[in-house]
Design goal:
Blueprint lengths: L10 H4 L13 H10 L3 E6 L4 H11 L2 H10 L1 E6 L4 H11 L10 E5 L5 E5 L13 H14 L1 H16 L14 H14 L16 H8 L3 H15 L14 E2 L7 E2 L2 E2 H17 L5 H18 L9 E2 L2 E4 L2 E4 L7 H4 L7 E2 L2 E2 H18 L2 H17 L10 E3 L2 E2 L6 H18 L2 H17 L16 H5 L16 H16 L2 H20 L5 H9 L4 E7 L9 H9 L3 E6 H9 L16 E6 L2 E2 L6 H8 L6
Parallel strand pairs: 1-2, 15-16
Antiparallel strand pairs: 1-3, 3-4, 5-6, 7-8, 8-11, 9-10, 12-13, 13-14, 15-17, 17-18
């Protein structure tokens, strides 16, 4: 039996291609092989920047004797959780029946029909602290499969039933929460704050950016909590002061001993958070601008690939002075780093995560007047539109170089990419990006079924293997590290409503949030982006700034004022661009002109607009004080 990972798209899978384990890639064939051989399946899930995944690969999967036992008694499948998030979600749910300490590597033992009957995370090569070695686990699973098959099947059936019930739509509420409910959520988060070191809870500690997104959308105590947290983590060891990027999490409560992998989604969302913090604090804090500039620099110089897309992550380990170690590279200054090989990037381009980066760079570039950031977002968007949209309109989940993954794109991909395109369209004035976003959202609405619950479907459908096994989890609304697919799609629909006046988008976004509201209010740490969108839905403000086609915008005070206002949806267009938007069915731009050739602002509240103005001070009076003051 041969290892079949050498041809994989995923760099994580290819890193296991030299293992003596006869690894298979995800698909129906390994399960059919297991059925023919009458053996269980080991589904081992990880990702390229996972430290303990690499440790287990070195300790166990590279061991010839252990691999021989594994090959004889199992069919082994290696999965990149970033390439196949649905698979990861389904097996995480199943694994929770066997271990409370979920994480990666995730090692799940399943029947040839895909039903889980045992699971765990990292297994050491030797017994320790009352935990069995990986060899002992394999032997125990083999014994159970051989001698207690009825018990195995009974356990697997119970777990299958529990997993199949996940993702069902929640209780719909009549209306979205009012401000009093959000105040109560702020109170919950204040009580969870680490007032000494910043952030929430103890160790290990994550930045929890979706929660900060919600707090930044509030006033008073909530906004203050968000900016306090952002300031403290920006000055902590979680941030690399040389290259500007943030690490994924820290082992200790004071943010020390980071796990040094750097993820695209973390840095995209943190760029957005620091941009909003700078924008909505009337004092325009320099610390927020400086940190935002560092993150954007990291995205452009470290994470953006030559083709335009962004790599998904950068590894925590690297070779420093000939020794492979975790984190030592990041303890060097800029001059010392120049003489070392930097940590490897996972050059897998993920559509959804790239959508987050596109949106964050577009908004930050607009707010800070950085055309190079907007250009980087445009470069990535053009790459995805050319390479990640199939002929039938469905999206590609992942690519590496010129190779495209067969993994199904998820709702996350459609929602995050559509959202990023809307942001890019409004700051560049290029309607083609808005048209592409509208197509993505419309395709999701058109493919929704009753089973989807919230009104958003995934074009192309769920993972076919999980679907065939009855284990597909259609909707996962939780969002500990980044917005869920449901929230991302709902926000894209909401932003489209603000430029189209098409009630379909408002209805879909509102319904999705009503389905989540009760759970989100009680568990804010897991539903921050949902709560943030619920607040946005109560603030339907729009601002369109129109310039003459031949105007130079470099010193335009009205544009600068609009950037600083930037509450709700703010769009900057030329007169000819406004005409193109209007002709394409975007009602917000109908009749928008630069009066007497002067830059003109149109401030609206859900399409009820004030008189246009060419006077920046009048725009300030119309807009009132920025949110968060």
């Amino acid at each position: 039996m041969d290892n079949q990972l050498a041809t994989a798209i995923s760099p994580y899978l290819r890193s296991h291609a030299d293992n003596p384990v006869a690894w298979r890639q995800w698909g129906p064939e390994p399960f059919a092989e297991a059925a023919t051989r009458d053996v269980p399946v080991l589904v081992s899930i990880g990702y390229s920047t996972c430290h303990w995944c690499h440790v287990m690969a070195r300790e166990s999967f590279s061991n010839p004797a252990l691999a021989a036992y594994l090959n004889e008694h199992f069919v082994a499948i290696k999965v990149d959780r970033e390439e196949h998030p649905e698979v990861d979600t389904s097996y995480l749910a199943a694994a929770s029946a066997f271990t409370p300490s979920l994480g990666w590597p995730l090692n799940v033992f399943v029947t040839p029909e895909g039903a889980t009957f045992y699971a765990g995370t990292y297994f050491a090569p030797e017994p320790a602290a009352g935990r069995p070695s990986f060899r002992q686990v394999l032997e125990a699973v083999t014994d159970a499969w051989t001698n207690r098959r009825e018990q195995v099947n009974r356990s697997a059936a119970q777990v299958r039933e529990a997993v199949a019930s996940l993702g069902q739509s929640g209780a719909d509420v009549d209306v979205l929460p009012a401000s009093e409910a959000f105040d109560q959520v702020v109170g919950l988060l204040e009580r969870a704050e680490d007032t000494t070191h910043g952030g929430f809870g103890g160790a290990p500690k994550f930045p929890m950016v979706p929660v900060l997104e919600f707090l930044l959308n509030t006033h008073g105590a909530g906004f203050a909590l968000a900016t306090r947290t952002l300031r403290m983590i920006g000055a902590s060891p979680l941030r690399d002061p040389v290259e500007g990027g943030f690490f994924r999490y820290a082992v200790k409560a004071d943010w020390s001993e980071p796990h040094y992998e750097r993820m695209l989604y973390d840095n995209a969302l943190l760029l957005q958070a620091y941009t909003v913090a700078w924008l909505r604090d009337g004092g325009a804090p320099q610390w927020a601008a400086s940190i935002a500039e560092g993150i954007a620099g990291f995205l452009l110089t470290v994470m953006q690939l030559d083709g335009g897309g962004f790599a998904s992550a950068q590894d925590s380990e690297s070779m420093v002075d000939g020794e492979r170690v975790e984190g030592r590279y990041y303890r060097l200054d800029r001059e010392a780093r120049a003489g070392q090989v930097p940590p490897a990037r996972d050059e897998k381009v993920l559509t959804g995560w790239n959508g987050l980066a596109i949106g964050a760079l577009a908004e930050a570039g607009f707010v800070f007047g950085r055309r190079d950031w907007v250009d980087a977002a445009r470069h990535a968007a053009d790459f995805l539109l050319a390479e990640h949209v199939r002929a039938d309109g469905t999206l590609v989940r992942a690519s590496v170089g010129s190779r495209v993954s067969t993994a199904r794109a998820t709702l996350e991909d459609y929602g995050m990419f559509a959202g990023g395109l809307v942001e890019l369209a409004r700051v560049t004035g290029e309607v083609r990006y808005a048209l592409a976003a509208r197509t993505l959202v419309d395709s999701s609405l058109a493919t929704a079924t009753t089973a989807d619950g919230t009104g958003f479907g995934t074009p192309g459908g769920p993972d076919p293997v999980l679907e065939g096994q009855g284990l597909s989890v259609r909707t996962d609304p939780s969002e500990g590290t980044h917005p869920s697919g449901q929230t991302a799609m709902a926000r894209a629909a909401w932003r489209l409503y603000l430029v189209t006046a098409d009630d379909r988008y408002l209805t879909a976004a509102t319904r999705a949030m009503r389905m989540t509201a009760l759970t989100a209010l009680g568990q804010p740490s897991s539903y921050g982006s949902s709560l943030a969108l619920m607040v946005e839905l109560t603030q339907p403000e729009q601002l369109v700034v129109v310039t003459a086609d031949d105007a130079s915008n470099d010193e335009d005070l009205m544009i600068e004022t609009a950037r600083r206002h930037a509450r709700g949806l703010v769009a900057q267009v030329t007169e000819s661009q406004a005409t193109a938007w209007a002709k394409a069915g975007f009602e917000l731009f109908d009749g928008r002109v630069a009066q007497d050739g002067r830059t003109t602002a149109y401030l609206c509240q859900e399409f009820a607009c004030r008189l246009p103005t060419t006077d920046p001070s009048e725009l300030v009076d119309q807009a009132g004080q920025p949110t968060g003051r």
